Each structure stands twice: as structure tokens, then as C-alpha cells.
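Dock CU-O-CU linkage; give full complex structure.
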Amino acid sequence: GSVRRYNFNVVMKQENRLCSSKPIVTVNSQFPGPTLHAREGDTVLVRVVNKVKYNVSIHWHGIRQLRTGWADGPAYITQCPIQPGNNYVYNFTITGQRGTLFWHAHVLWLRATVHGAIVILPKLGVPYPFPKPDVEQVVVLGEWWKSDTEKVINDALKSGLAPNVSDAHTINGHPGAVTGCQSQGGFQLSVENGKSYMLRIINAALNEELFFKIAGHKLTVVEVDATYVKPFTTNTIVIAPGQTTNAIITASKSSGKFMMAASPFMDSPIAVDNKTATATLHYTGTLSTTSTTLTIPPPQNSTATANNFIDSLRSLNSKKFPANVPLKIDHSLYFTVGLGINACPTCKAGNGSRVVASINNVTFVMPTTALLQAHYFNKKGVFTTDFPGNPPVSFNYTGAPPANLATSSGTKVYRLKYNSTVQLVLQDTSIISPENHPVHLHGFNFFAVGKGLGNYNPKVDPKNFNLVDPVERNTIGVPSGGWVAIRFRADNPGVWFMHCHLEVHTTWGLKMAFLVDNGSGPNESILPPPKDLPKC
Ligand code: C2O
């Protein structure tokens, strides 16, 4: 492969949305940020220069980072953040991956505006396993708050309550026309009759899963999370924060304008948010007076639409791209994910308590030095390795909540032996309310072998697992009031974060890390840290 060099200057930029203006943190003054282009096998060097007042780190979401955990990016997990005025070069090689991923800030709530696409083409001369589209287009979905996002979350943490929901969703940085502020148009994609377009769709929103659809056009899904799937055609795509989807449309009309819509999917009964971001598919030569053909997004609680999409996803599982699902399992883990309530004497609005989140009842406490550094340099007292592999107290997770909603806390990791195989069942607890949690695992792809509603039953449910062609991805929605089962091989030494990709849940503590111990073979241990690795 070749070497690709990028300069990411993290700078403030004044941006105007929804008829009001605010300074935001950006990379190179762009929102969304620059697209990183590479081919499978390339080495990527990104020099990040921090010119803002916040600590910064960047995560290359979905890049496996084989033996290069130092370049993964989550602050205080694999690196100390880059302090104001400092810089750091992320150095990694893209191994065995091609497709769409994205990069984003991985500290505070900076990823609200610090994010951009990663487009990985196959190796030179290697075709896609589907007809080559005529045109490719990145479509980044996001969220916009009129106020400063750091203030939004800091106010919430002080109060103990949930943060304000965003004021708009965005498509390639713009809310579009249907927002009550008509002065700004939305993103326009101009198309020509007869041509095919591959949309590289990324959900970079902080806190919301989204539906995406286009009036009058069907989408053929060919890839998710940079893994090929068996192509299928759909009207509506469902995409959680942290997920990516490549879908091909054929421009089959002679002219016209057609609405693209991104709207929230929330099957929690207490969630209310019906803001739709819009953009326009515009056939070249269409008269400016032509009105746009509208599309109606699914209702926000349309679980049926979501399941229909999710259940259609299958690994391509071809000769060239086999689905190597682990069949023999070394670690069988059962993690509950959900919200809880802990005491907070200073939380006035929360009446002396605050909302927290946990995995197996552990609310993860961020360390003040990076876990990977502590592990590599054998620094004691930073974390413990007693993260529970099963819930400490089991109960009916989807029935009446337990009397005590409080969680324990700690900086705990779960240790996996290099190259061992893992089955992990993620169970939504529905303690405060059932909620869909898009859980993201760093450092690995996993296979989504099973899912169901209610409590996971280890005696019955594994009989229905798909061990042949389950979808392979890096972020999976744990269904509201249900569970998913995933499998992966721990073939990447290092410390790997796993967390809910709804940023508010991560902040509240729905996160943990796997520590994969060094293997003994020549290529089985993590590489030494780079000289410029930031210090805490
Ligand atoms: Cu895209 Cu740890 O995140």
C-alpha cells in the first residue's frame, strides 16, 4: 500500500444554522470535517494539531488498528488527550478492510462537530463485489444544537437530569428546508437519468438513531460498517450513531426534485423528537420552479420498520469474503446495559440524585491516565481486571425494576487471552425505561448471531443463532427491552473500549474496556508506543 498524509488542524469556526450563529470546534474549519481517502493496505498518517482550548483526541471509528492501539484515539483509554497547543501523529495501516467508516473526536462532546468520513477503496485493481456505481457520494447525518454542546452536557451533569435534545438533525451539515428557518437550503445532490449513485451514509449524530429515505427511489444496501452484505433493496435505512451504510440508488427519472429525509428512530416510550432533516436529489435540467416530491418519514417509534431493515442484513459470505464466525467459544459473557439512579447531593434539579448508566451494574469511571499506557508500562492502581462477566444480581430485566436502582462504580476491565473467542450477549435492562443502545466495540468487528425481545434464555435462544452468514459490524443496536448476541475473536492485543454510542449514555457511564493480553508469537503483541504519544 501507499502512505497517505493528512493535516488536521483543530480550530474554532463560526457557523450559522437555524438562523443563529455560534462558534464550533472543527477540523480545518470544515463541518462536517474533511473526508479521509485511502485504499485497503495503505498506511495513514494524520497529524492532529490542537489549536482550541479543549483537550482533543480523534478516533478512527471501525478501523481495526491491529497492534496499533496507540492510534485508536479514545481519550484516557488508549491515549492521553492532545492538550491545547500540542500535536500528535496518528499512524495506522488499514488491514483487511474496505468501505465506509468515519473519524470523530473522542473526548468531551466534541464529536458533535468534529467528525468526517473515511472512504476506503479496495486494493488497486480489485473490483467491488457488485456493479460499480457511476458516482459515489458521502452523506453524513448529524445533530445541531443552537447552544454550545459542552454547555448542554455540563448543565445536565450539574442538574442530574438528561441533557436538552438537539434543535435539528443535519444532512451533510445542513438541516434543510423544514426547520422553520427558511433562509438556508439543504444539501443538494444533482443526478442524471440512467446513472447509479452509491451513497456512503454515516450516522455521526450524538444521541439519535435515524431513519433515512429518498422520495421515489429505492436503496440497495451493499455494505455496512465496512463489511459487504448480501445486497437487498429497501425504502428506508435504519442507522444508529456509529454505524455506516453504503446504498446504491439508480436515477431513473427524466427530471424532478426528490426529498431525502433523516428522522429519529426511538422505540423508547418516553422519547419525543420528530425533527426531520431534509436534502434534495436534483435531476440536472430540472426547472427551478418544479416543486419537490416529498417523502413521509416513518413514525419515530416504528420498530417494525427498523426490524425489517435489521433482519435483512446478512454477511455477503462469498468465497472471497467468507464469514468466519467463531464456532467454539472460550468466553461466554452476559452484559446488562441500561440506566440507573445514583445519589448526587449537589444535583438540585435532580432532587439529590442523578441518572447514571452501567454495564453489569458497573458505572465506568474514567481514569486520569490512559489505560493502555498503564497496561503497557505496568503502572499499578489505574484499573482493576475484575469486570464481571455476568450480572452480579440477576432479575427480570424487562419486567418490574428492582427496588435498588443504584449502580456500583469503578475503572474495571475484562481480560481476554489473545486469540480467544468471545460470545457476548448484551441485554437491555429497561430499569428506567426500555431503550435501544447502539453498542460500539473498538478494535474488532463482530458477528451479530442472534437477537430477541425480553430476557435472553441461554437454554433456548442459542439454538436459533445464525452462525452461517450473520452481519459483521462494529456497532450494534441492543433492542429496546431485548438482547443481541455477538461473537468475535480477540485477535488484537491492547485495551479496547466498548460503549453505547449515544454520547449521553457514554457520559453517564455505559462503557467498559476489554484488555487483550499479549500473545507470545512474533506478531501477537502491541507495537511500542510512538515517541510523540501525548502525556496526561
Ligand atoms: Cu465512534 Cu468509542 O466511538
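Observed: The chain has three domains: 1-126, 130-315, 331-516.
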